Amino acid sequence: QNVTQTVEEEKPQPPTIQEIKQKIEKYNAKVTNCLLMKLNYDGTYTGFIKVHLKLRRPVTVPAGIRPQSIYDALKEVNLADMTDKRTSFYLPLDAIKQLHISSTTTVSEVIQGLLKKFMVVDNPQKFALFKEMRKDGQVLFQKLPLTEYPLYLRLLAGPDTDALSFVLKENETGEVEWDAFSIPELQNFLMILDKEEKEKIQQVQRKYEKFKQRLQQTLKEARGKPG
Known about the structure:
Blueprint: H1 17-30, E1 38-39, E2 45-53, E3 59-62, H2 70-74, E4 86-89, E5 95-102, H3 107-117, E6 127-135, E7 138-143, H4 150-157, E8 165-170, H5 183-223
Parallel strand pairs: 2-8
Antiparallel strand pairs: 1-2, 2-5, 3-4, 6-7, 6-8
């Protein structure tokens, strides 16, 4: 008789302060710039991560708002709260943002911090943070849980971005909780989809129009030849 038992996996013990110190020293020894990690007295540590923004869809930002200044950042001024007007905007493809975070900073907080820096007012649930790894000539993506600590992953992988890098992408549609979005957000999303659909149709029409012109030109040339 086969009996299925649920076996709880033993969770690895968290590293001690001494182990963290050794890992940080090893990490900093490989750093070729000034972006070092720093150990605090309480065992936490701080450092830098780079996040690649690979967003294929436009994001929603406040309309008519100037870019955030250093003064606004220091005073924690939220420019998005100054207007209710919204507009859609494409972030530069594969833009890179460098963040200074703590070992206690979660994936959820990284996503919210990135959206705040770019003044994106879309629901954070629309986005997900992935870790990108290169293995045997292949690029692999793995979605990170919201409770994961990116700086710890950076520490384990070392400063080499070929071994590990972070990417902000759209969340999978199947995991998005649409009920959490407001009516204006859903309407804006439909407008974006409608725009993308029209652009795709125009691309297909232009493709076959060129094909039609070439075919007509070939037939015209063939009629002019003897035999």
